[in-house]
Amino acid sequence: MLKNFIWIISVWTPLFIYGQNPLWIPDTLSGTNFNLTVQTGIVQFYAGQNTPTYGVNGNFLAPTLFLNKDDTVTLNVTNNLIFETTMHWHGLHVPPEFDGGPHQIISPGTTWSPTFRIMNNAGTYWYHPHGNGTTELHVTKGLAGIMIIRDPTEAALNLPRKYGVDDFPLILQTRCFDVLYQIAGFTHDDTVMMVNGTIDPTLQVPAQMVRLRVLNGSVDRTYQLGLSNDSTFYQIATDGGLIEQTNPINRLMVSPGERVEIILDLAGLQGQTINLMSYASELPAGIMGSANVSQGAATLPGYNSNPLNGNDFNILELEIVAPTPSPVTSIPAVLTTLNPLLEGTENMSRSFAFAPVMLGDMEMIEGPFTINGESFEMDSINVITYLNHTEIWELTNTTAVAHPFHIHDVQFFILDRNGLPVSAAESGQKDVVLVKPSESVRFITRFEDFHHATIPYMYHCHLLHHEDEGMMGSFIVLDSATLEVQQIMDESFTIFPNPASESINIHIPDGKYILSDLVLSNIQGQQLMVKRINSQTETLDISGLKEGIYFMTIRSSVNCQTKKIIIN
Questions:
Q1: Quick one: which of 405, 404, 381 has its CA closest to 393?
Q2: What would the DSSP string read from start to end of 241-293?
Q3: Which of 243, 351, 426, 473 could form a disulfide with 422 if both were Cys (CB 3.0 to 4.6 A apart)?
Q4: Is pLDDT at 488 greater than 60 in this prediction?
């Protein structure tokens, strides 16, 4: 019913009024200790009209975080909303307990303070909520921000890097505003283009080399980037940082969740105006934002009437002004050395099929969708992998709509699309890949540094409505050199009832763990209760614990086993 109501009220938004509003550049935070407050806000996107929003340290969106590779940082995330949220560090290689997926819940009025070492290469990453079934709502209302990592390799290159001067963050999003100027979700009437929360933005840029850090923070729209004068620009980075060689290009496709860094050569153009465009008319069918997302006679409600779909449109007006002192006037052809993983070195290969829950023309484009026939469940683990293992994942799309696939924890290298090599634009490290209808994409990755027997990472479609409806799975990384494998695989004790709310019973049929310890832990790994086992069946009072996921471990001097408990 909510979807239908939004279709009814989402009937008017102003369109294509270009060059009116100076682009807002997010404030920055730097150092090793960051205080981030998630809060409600009010923004006047339209003069005299108040729109309720969410933001981090402000009314809408979030500050840009500057991080240095190898620094250990603490991010204190305080939730001042009246409901739960999370905060995921998209693209960062961090321990699973600090990843910020749906298992790391931040309750209202509390602060979550993950601490970890920055291990990623220099690049553009981002942060946003990742709750169970709430990601689209929270991102749509404004919770998203960019992270910029610096490292010595990038610092040694002659590249623009003066934030807000010749190095600009661009968060691309489309929105639907209803007749009350509220931001509407769960809709394909997203007719308003926004950059950094600015409608109809214009930006003064110097007549020299200028760097744009582009994040597609949209709910589902893919952009086909190009310049209105059709000039060449230069790609220097993908999701995971620098590519090996500068890539001259005049079109660059960016799907939800992806980041690219491009350099514009504006030398000699002072006094001119050009536009950063999305050439959506060139997008292949099945990609959200193209002219055609359909199956048989079925079309998405509101999609075909949206003037952004399948038509070329302006993203950002660039007003070219005088050069800055000591401008960057050229960029290097060679950027870094990546040493990509090679096929033949993998420990195993896996296959993942995207399909609708139910067969039918509408279901093929609208979903809900599954991965390998399964929808996400908080208490399930879909994949178990092992520390220091290299794997090839093959993604096959049997639906009629393209899905940007994102994996947490790692960066990967794309091996091929339908058996063919990928273009230079996708040659670098990636954490999102767009899989088009009837396409199979293979990538290779390695699971390094972090492992945990019970706390998972996620993989999912980054079309946020698809993710929220269950197109997501979880995986854990185990250290095969420790007892973690036995922790997961051993089924020699049972917990009942489960889920439970008042008490649970732990039964050990063979009695071999008598005089061992029972350890109850929360999702963050904190020990809440320890009890010595004195009989084959032990009973624990859990009535004082909050609803959520917990873990029960039987721990002896030579072995341990863990199982998941749901308290409701």
A1: 405
A2: EEEEEEEEES-EEE-TT-EEEEEEE-TT-TT-EEEEEEEGGGSPTTSTTSS--
A3: 426
A4: no
Is there a contact between 201 and 316 (Cβ–Cβ < 8 Å)? yes
Band (492; pLDDT cuts 50, 70, 90): low
Q: Are 224 and 311 in contact (CB under 8 A)?
A: no
Ordered by where they begin, the domains of the chain are 348-478 (2.60.40.420), 490-567 (2.60.40.3080)
> Residue 465 belongs to what H/E stretch?
helix 464-468
Q: What is the 3-state secondary structure (H, E, C) of 294-361?
A: EECCEECCCCCCCCCCCCEEEEEEEEEECCCCCCCCCCCCECCCCCCCCCCCCCEEEEEEEEECCCCH
Lowest mean pLDDT among 280-284, 418-422, 455-459, 478-482: 478-482
Q: Which of 93, 49, 53 is nearest to 69 (CA)?
A: 93
Q: Is the pLDDT of residue 278 over 70?
A: yes
Q: Which of 56, 126, 331 is nearest to 209 (CA)?
A: 331
Kindly report the number of other CB atoms within 10 A of residue 534's CB atom: 8
Nearest to 462 by CA among 232, 126, 182: 126
List the strands of the sheet with 123-128, edge to edge: 28-30, 64-68, 145-150, 123-128, 88-90
Per-position DSSP letters for 110-143, written without gaps between them: -EE--EEE--SPSEEEEEE---TTTHHHHHHHT-
- What's the token pair of residue 394? 């093959």
CB 140 within 8 Å of CB 192: no
pLDDT at 568: 81
pTM, rounded to two decimals? 0.85
Q: Which amino acid is at 12?
A: W
* Length of the chain, in residues: 568
Amino acid at 149: I
State mean pLDDT over 456-485: 88
Read off the pLDDT of residues 44-79 as tens digits, 9 standing for 90 and up. Answer: 999 999 999 999 999 999 999 999 999 999 999 999
Q: What is the pLDDT of residues 282-326, one digit of tens each?
A: 999 999 999 999 999 999 999 999 999 999 999 999 999 999 999
HEC per residue, 356-403: ECCCCHHHHHHCCEEECCECCCCCCCCEEEECCEEEEEEEEECCCCCE
By percentage, how much of the chain surpasses pLDDT 70?
92
- Cβ atoms of residues 86 and 38 within 8 Å: no
Instruction: Give the C-alpha separation, 91 to 457, whole Å.
Output: 12
pLDDT value of position 524:
63
- What is the number of helices (H) and of strands (E) in the chain? 6, 43
Is the separation of the CB atoms in 112 and 70 below 8 Å? no
Q: Which pLDDT tens digit goes with each residue over 240-265?
A: 999 999 999 999 999 999 999 999 99
Distance CA 163, CA 185 (A): 32
